[in-house]
Design a protein that fits this description.
Oligomer: heterodimer
Mean pLDDT of chain B: 95
Number of strands of chain A: 10
Structural class of chain A: alpha+beta
Order of helices and strands of chain B: HHHHHHHHHHHHHHHHHH
Distance between the termini of chain B: 37 Å
CATH topology of the largest domain in chain A: Immunoglobulin-like
Structural class of chain B: mainly alpha
Distance between the termini of chain A: 71 Å
Shape of chain B: globular
Largest sheet of chain A: 5 strands, mixed
Shape of chain A: elongated
Largest interface: A-B, 82 and 87 residues
CATH architecture of chain B: Up-down Bundle
CATH superfamily of the largest domain in chain A: Cupredoxins -  blue copper proteins
Number of domains of chain A: 2
Strand content of chain A: 15-25%
Number of domains of chain B: 1
Mean pLDDT of chain A: 90
Chain lengths: ~240, ~550
């Protein structure tokens, strides 16, 4: 009896642990994304510890301090302990300062723009599609709901995206980059990535932009630099629409 | 202090019929009940909209509604839940219980109170009347981002009705806040010092302050949008020097304190219930008040964490402030736990909902810290991760606490106990449905499912978890039906409650259920935060002799 009760006490909070740890980021494919993923892992571990401690204390109180039937005696009526209160004010304060410092380092790297990107893509979002222009060439790829865009990018080279909109706010989002930026009329946004793995990746518009917001998916193909160069040359001929 | 010549007094003598009485009432208790019914009605409507959305999302492809309708659904779902359910429900509790808690006969301005309520009704009906127009309701999300909400992109009349509805609701909320401030600072019974106020009342003070400072900002922003749309203004039009980011600043300068407006009153509710059902005083009363004030103060400095991906705000500053605001909330958790510690916990339905609140809000709070980190926010902003987080805060937090409050206070408001067994069925169904619906959303968001989409491509692999979430939403729907049945059944046939069914601490338990017109025929002496408890203890000591 005593054992099984103790077992329950441990099991209740422990049951939530896999739930928290199970939520993890998709495998990142950019060097910046890797840092974000690592940061997410740090946050998750600390979050799991906090959850288990706090949920465990609640669960313990619920089980250990349930009133027994017929017991009408008042429990001890204590209600202050300044030292304890200062402690539990200080501990979370220290934790969030630590999380902030970890954040600050990653933020600097994620926001860092490549000095000399191998490819600069001018991204223009509109209702409802994308126009991708490869800077320095006349290659332009347009995607619309009936015919989504497929863009090609090289791996292991810094790439900069320059984001502009002529109508409403959109957001340029490739989940496996673990990054996104709003595409805002009247304000140009830029960010850089270095893709590390070849493959085909889905992209979306993340900021709600009106009727067909859900019809703005596009595809990114990451290929070797050589294949990218030959693809780009092949595109040069049929100026415009893919 | 009691205003003997208030119009309500004359109303009583004339003995009006029930309906006319409620329409013309200035009694804070009746207005509280009106707020409760109206807010719950909006909850049922907005919940039904959500169920339609979940039905649509259960599988890839458009089966139930088209894009336009879907966009109207999530706009009105968010708008109604925030403006016409959660905040008015806080006002329902505040209306009924602030005067009782402070030992007053009514609020400071009873007629203003009635005006506030009726403006809120009009506000809700105005915003929803968009559905009756040919262009449909507003389709741009409850955040109304420009330029999408400008007349070029959203020309429908429904959009203007949405603006008018929110304007009315903003004015109504501001007047209500003024009324509560005046009531709490001016009408406390002798002996009811500030540090003897129930924590619920403290939370209403801070909530009212937040409303008074932020609702006018929203009102101003909405007026600017209205001028842009209808009078040729250019506040937000980038082509002629306007700024779309300005809207986001104004909206979130209101919008983040709004989140605290939507949660603080319910922190108050939970903080009233946990001590009573642990049979102990609240642990760390002053620390709790301090934490509430700190949350209120911090809440003005965190708004731009909604805007990290705009690239137009200072990431580190808003990240730091947003993480710091987690600390006072953490303090409250320890206070709640220490209150239960070595207590004698009675796990009745109100307490069960408080426990649901603790676990679910803990999840919401923790995931909030993730979102306060800009690099993580860049990954999950505008995805279902945020949808999951906000529902753990506002549903797992506020709504569970709302039900805790209803089960706790319905005996006082209607004189009858709610059915325990049905209450427990309601709780477990809702807890299950809630987690099945919203837990998968964290992973969906991480995997890249963005918000506010009517459809997603099949090859994304989002389908199984969406189906799960949709099944969960049906369970929530079922649990709400159990509640509605329990509420009306118990109101008619529940056990009579008596004055003090829970062995409560605060002054509402010193009077009859429901209380008489001016609340009290006598007040117990107020010498601590638990005047009713003190008096019953005194009586027991004397009877023992």
């Amino acid at each position: 009896m005593e054992m099984s009760q103790r077992g329950r006490k441990i099991l209740v909070p422990a049951a939530f642990l896999p739930l928290i740890v199970s939520a993890c980021t998709p495998e990142p494919i950019t060097s910046q994304g890797e840092q974000v993923s690592d940061l997410y892992t740090i946050f998750s571990v600390i979050a799991a510890v906090i959850f288990v401690v706090v949920a465990g204390l609640i669960g313990w109180s619920l089980i250990r301090y349930r009133a027994k039937p017929g017991d009408d005696e008042l429990p001890p009526q204590f209600h202050t302990n300044l030292k304890l209160e200062i402690t539990w004010f200080a501990i979370p304060q220290v934790i969030v300062i630590g999380l902030f410092i970890a954040t600050a380092f990653v933020l600097v790297d994620v926001n860092e723009e490549a000095d000399d990107p191998a490819v600069t893509v001018d991204v223009e979002a509109f209702q409802w599609g994308w126009r991708f222009g490869y800077s320095g060439t006349d290659v332009t790829i347009i995607g619309i709901p009936q015919d989504p865009a497929e863009i090609v990018l090289p791996v292991n080279e810094p790439i900069t995206f320059v984001l502009n909109s002529d109508d409403v706010v959109h957001a340029f989002y490739i989940p496996k980059f673990l990054n996104k930026r709003d595409v805002i009329p009247g304000k140009e946004n830029r960010f850089s990535v270095t893709i590390q793995e070849e493959g085909t990746y889905q992209g979306f518009c993340a900021e709600f932009c009106g009727l067909l917001h859900d019809r703005m998916p596009f595809t990114v193909q990451a290929v070797s630099s050589a294949s990218f160069e030959s693809w780009l040359e092949g595109q040069g001929d049929d100026d415009g629409d893919s | 202090m009691a205003t003997v010549d208030s119009p309500a007094d004359f109303g009583i003598e004339r003995r009006r019929s029930g309906l006319v009485d409620y329409i013309t009432t200035t009694d804070h208790k009746k207005i509280g009940i009106l707020y409760l019914y109206t807010a719950v009605a909006f909850f049922l409507v907005a919940g039904a909209l959500a169920l339609v959305m979940r039905a649509e999302l259960a599988a890839p492809g458009l089966q139930v509604v088209d894009n336009q309708t879907y966009n109207e659904l999530f706009t009105m779902h968010g708008t109604a839940m925030m403006f016409f359910f959660v905040v008015p429900l806080a006002l329902a509790f505040a209306n009924y219980f602030v005067p009782l808690h402070i030992g007053a006969p009514d609020v400071a301005f009873p007629r203003l109170n009635a005006l506030t309520y009726w403006m809120f009704v009009l506000a809700g009906l105005t915003a929803f009347s968009g559905f009756a127009t040919s262009g449909g309701a507003a389709p741009f999300g409850w955040t109304g981002y420009v330029p999408l909400s400008e007349s070029t992109y959203s020309p429908s009349v429904g959009a203007d009705l949405w603006i008018m509805g929110l304007l009315l609701s903003g004015v109504s909320g501001t007047l209500g806040a003024v009324n509560f401030m005046a009531t709490i600072f001016g009408m406390r019974a002798p002996g009811m010092t500030m540090f003897r106020l129930p924590i619920f009342v403290w939370n209403i003070i801070v909530t009212s302050a937040l409303i008074m400072f932020t609702f006018p900002v929203l009102t101003a922003a909405l007026s600017m949008l209205f001028i842009d749309r209808n009078m040729g203004g250019h506040f937000f039009d980038p082509k002629v020097g306007g700024d779309p980011i300005l809207w986001q600043h104004l909206f979130w300068f209101f919008g983040h304190p709004e989140v605290y407006i939507a949660i603080l009153p319910f922190f108050g509710v939970v903080t009233e219930i946990i001590p009573v059902f642990s049979r102990k005083p609240l642990f760390g009363y002053r620390g709790f008040v301090f934490a509430t004030l700190l949350i209120g103060a911090y809440s003005f400095s965190v708004w731009a964490h909604h805007m990290f991906t705009t690239g137009a705000v200072d990431g580190p500053f808003f990240s730091a402030t947003s993480m710091l605001i987690a600390v006072p909330t953490g303090i409250k958790f320890f206070n709640w736990i220490a209150t239960m510690w070595r207590g004698k916990i009675r796990l009745r339905t109100p307490m069960l909902f408080c426990m649901g609140f603790l676990f679910m809000f803990l999840m919401g709070g923790i995931t909030g810290v993730f979102l306060a980190s800009p690099p993580i926010d860049f990954a999950v902003h505008d995805t279902y991760y945020v949808v999951g987080h906000m529902h753990y805060v506002l549903f797992g937090g506020s709504v569970f606490a709302i039900f805790a409050g209803i089960y706790y206070w319905a005996p006082k408001m209607f004189g009858r106990m709610m059915n325990e067994r049905l209450g427990k069925v309601h709780f477990w169904l809702m807890l299950l449905g809630f987690n099945v619906t919203f837990f998968p959303m964290f992973q969906l968001g991480l995997n890249g499912m963005v918000r506010r989409i009517a459809d997603y491509p099949a090859e994304t692999g989002f389908a199984p978890m969406n189906l799960l979430a949709s099944i969960g939403s049906a369970i929530i729907g079922l649990s709400v039906l159990v509640f509605v049945y329990n509420f009306f059944m118990s109101k008619r046939r529940g056990m009579p409650a008596g004055n003090d069914p829970w062995e409560g601490y605060t002054l509402e338990w010193a009077t009859t259920s429901p209380p008489p017109h001016h609340n009290f025929t006598r007040l117990p002496p107020i010498r601590s935060q638990q005047p009713v408890f003190d008096e019953t203890q005194q009586a027991q000591r004397e009877s023992r002799g």
